[in-house]
Request: fold
Amino acid sequence: MSKVMGERPKALLDVPLHYCPGCTHGIVHRLVAEVIDELGIEGKTVGVASVGCSVFTYNYFGCDMVQAPHGRAPAVATGVKRARPDNVVFTYQGDGDLAAIGMGETVHAAARGENIVAIFINNAIYGMTGGQMAPTTLPGQVTQTTPYGRDTSVAGNPIRVCELLSSVKGVALAERVTVDCVKNVKAAKKAIKKAFEYQMAGKGYCIVEVVSTCPTNWGMAPGEALQWLRDNMLPYYPLGVYKDVGEEGEQ
Amino acid sequence: MSDKVLMKGNEAIAEAAIAAGCRHFFGYPITPQTEVAAYMSKRMPKIGGVYLQAESEVASINMVLGAGAAGVRVMTSTSSPGISLMSEGISYIAGSDVPCLIVNVERGGPGLGGIQPSQSDYFQATKATGHGDFHMLVFAPSTVQETVDLISDAFDLGDKYRMPTMILSDGLLGQMMEPVVLPEAKDPTDNKEWAVKGHQGKRAHNVVNSLYIDPKELEDLNIARFEKYKKIMETEQRAEEYLVDDADIVLVAFGASSRIAHSAVDMARKQGIKAGLIRPITLWPFPEKTIKKHIDHAKVFLSVEMNMGQMVEDVRLTVQDKKPVHFFGRTGGMVPTPKEVLEQIVKLNGGEC
Reply:
């Protein structure tokens, strides 16, 4: 007798994903969809797709979706949420989208305490355009546009988004997670669920940063990429809760 | 409300939008449109609406995109440099077929330019408000009352055709006070089936999107959108004619400059010169039907604008070398006087002034 051990979450549509082998987007999509299912909110959720590898999320999530210009997802989400306060609204953004071109929109949505969730994929590279330097590219990291390694005296320093946003009043949750192993996947899901619950409780802006891999543009096999993430990404981007207003809300 | 009230152009814009059922305003301060936002910030909280000051015009137009995608009546207002910043978002809005109202209270340019009235965003409004193949419905009122009336139409037509609409005002119309009768309040039904507002488990998910990676699919969509534009060009052209039927010299002017051209026509008539005025009310679609009616009897056309000559190109395209088309304008925030326009009319009539 065969036994069903796990099923596709209902909020994740039964369509092929376009992501490269070993990319962690698929895991994060699944976690977001599981949370939407568990909270029973697919019918009132609106997702905002950004520009980057995750641009096609509007084809993958079963909830209503709107696609935003590059970096503008927090502003588009603000418009949706202000128009439909009873809807649950989330953005799904990469590092270039959220921390470079969209940093202004991000910080101000956070400062307004905009009642939205940002799922932030930090893989230290621009994936869709073929592997250019991102605002989170590590010092010395080789990318298509830092062929000799990121020289911080020329190309500046990588931005730690959760640390930065933790200083902003209006942020209810800023947590950094990763999905390199079962334990961390479980912790990531818990953080995502908390973020959605906080929004439903009206607590304010929540961001869950997922330290992720890009095997294709890092030029590594999927397993190698996960090890590189542990050895290089996590020391610069330590996992943890950077801000959590808790049950009481912001004091 | 049917009483006549004295209102500033910019405040009338805000009140007319509220009367049209708009309860969502996103904007960023810029002169000379500031009164629109200030008025909205006062009124919206009292009527259960949303006024939100964004961190930039880039953000405010994307908030408009979000609220419009969610199916509500939404607007923003700004002035010329602000439209440049919004052009990305306007292109996405057009490409996503989202209705919204954008008000441009024009000022002089290019660059930071000046804060005095101008009409130098005609090209931007009618030809290329952003990247890609698209148009907006563009209305150019010439009085505060007409501004009020057109705002209501702009919202309705935007919803009807699922497209962004623009009121192209200027610092002169925005700042002047005139008596207006405000329209009856509308309560538009919340029934946009394509909107993203949660499917409630009752339908497949809606997607509001402008990305089409398959070029054939994108071409087909653009062609379909231009079929819609063609229909709009056939049915939505608007223009006012003043003493044109027997005119030898036909002036073409919109918005604030049409008021000056109107006075100049009166002055010319007093001198026995047969001058008339065609005043485009829609700039896109350009009212070529009205102009074409008068090509045969007109001896010459004169486009009067507050810029270096922009609409004159559309007049020329319409007249097609059948008659001479001239231009007169002031720019940089300078407003032509009726006397200056009259001098042009007299000259075109073969006389000296």
